[in-house]
Amino acid sequence: MSDVASRSGAGDSSGRGTPQGAAVTVAGLRLTIDGKPILNGIDLELPRGKVTGLAGESGSGKTMTGMTLIGLQPDNAVVTGSVLFDGRELVGLPAREWGSVRGTRIAMVFQDPTASLHPMLSIGRQLTDHQRHHLGLPKREALARAESLLERVGVPDPAGALKKYPHEFSGGQLQRIAIASAIACDPELLIADEPTTALDVTVQAGILALLRSLCDDLGLTVVLITHDFGVLSSLADEIAVMRGGVIVEHGSRYDVIRQPTHPYTRELIESLPMHELAEAGALGAPGASEGTE
Amino acid sequence: MMGEQLTIDDVRVTYNVAGRAALNAVDGVSFTLTPGAVLGLVGESGCGKSTLARAICGLVPLSGGSVTFGDVPVGSMGLSGRDPRLLRIQMVFQNPYASLNPRRRIGKQIEDARRIHPTTAPTVGELLDQVELPRSAAAGYPFQFSGGQRQRIAIARAMATGPDVLIGDEPIASLDASLQSRVAQLMRRVALESGASLLFISHDLAIVRTIADRVLVMNRGKVVEEGETDAIWGAPQHPYTKRLLGAIPAVDGLGRIPLVAQP
């Protein structure tokens, strides 16, 4: 798109020694539902082992982009364009082949863990079913792995947690369990759609730290879909801003937040309560930036 | 139209939990809600804010203290008729899937509420206009609407009674993230336009900040801090408030995840 303000990865991203190159390359992705255009040509490269944030308001198409990456768009949606994942074209992939990609190589975490976990199955069951299916593990091994996964995501008493049911946990613990379930089959790509929106802020901080450490330790490529620039500012390495089904600006976290070039991004950032920016020193010297904006 | 003042004085609610010590969900809370004011009530899950909302409406019995609306004490809701003056307190619940009757048309449900209105209620069409829904919605059933639309219907129904006090108990928590702020703004506008006051309960500090004039911060059943919204955000006094606000990630582009000491 000609109106995309794209910049190569400058900014302050620390070199974590992650493998270079794109884990996923999206080109000219379009999606229509009953003839109504939802995505109008998305071009996006997701750098391997990094968190790419998708920002935007209601109806901008950010969730639908995430859904399309994992093949969960509505049945009546028509998708054209290209999503290249590990040399494989995902657009138009037959349902049967999706079965060997979704849940094992590409996984997803949703907004509301009380809805995304099954209320009547034990945590142990929910953390082992897909391992046994995708990885072909025997039950005992899958359970042992589930226990170490729960430990990894910081759920207290992992062995005991396996025997419990979702209603016995708080929202924050459930989101940790949902993340454990998502990473159980060692995916390369994790799509997190508003993963902290339903949580208290103090709990949110813990989940953000967990996602950061998973990304750094496991080399996981993460797509972080959120409307919250605070969350993007703390976790995303790159930020793509969406509006009307296209990406209007894409760049490093620092550049997009501190020096947005697209008017829409600037509008979004400026609509945030000034206090948070001012307190963080993002407005430069007090009083100096007003004149230059 | 000026409403009555809602006075909450040293309200206590105790839950008896089998096999455990009694839980003081609300532990001596006092405040007043003046007409035309928007009061935000924030706190983390489990701090007692929803219990407090239910206590104000008489949905849970008080174990101490009093709730007074104008000069009418608010008692427990029973099977007998309620003092009509108390019907001027209306509530919008968290889950619009459960709070609307699935088997009655939207228009009928709003019509019921209009009968309570003390003077001339706005028409169903006008109410739907207020909450930005098409007038044709009146003929539909709840299942035909999305979560955000249902919550708008619930707001329209509450407003149809011409309330003096509108209470929203996490009214946006079950909505899609990008809709939350819009529905919250809508509640504020609708309440203030009709001269009602709004008690807005939420765990989402960012949204409370955008709509509330004053804020109460609750922790473990107690109000730990109260003040003007700007003052609380600008200079929080209580350690709990500081911890809560400190957990909000700053939009500085530096990639810092807030460090929060676990209590």
Automatic annotation (TrEMBL), chain A:
Belongs to the ABC transporter superfamily. The lineage of its organism: Bacteria, Bacillati, Actinomycetota, Actinomycetes, Micrococcales. This is ABC transporter domain-containing protein. It is found in: Cell membrane. Residues 24-269 form the ABC transporter domain. It is a peripheral membrane protein. It comes from Gryllotalpicola daejeonensis. Keywords: ATP-binding, Cell membrane, Membrane, Nucleotide-binding, Transport. Residues 1-17 have a biased composition (Low complexity). InterPro entries: AAA+_ATPase (IPR003593), ABC_Ni/Peptide_Import (IPR050388), ABC_transporter-like_ATP-bd (IPR003439), ABC_transporter-like_CS (IPR017871), P-loop_NTPase (IPR027417). It comes from the Bacteria. Residues 1-21 are annotated as: Disordered.
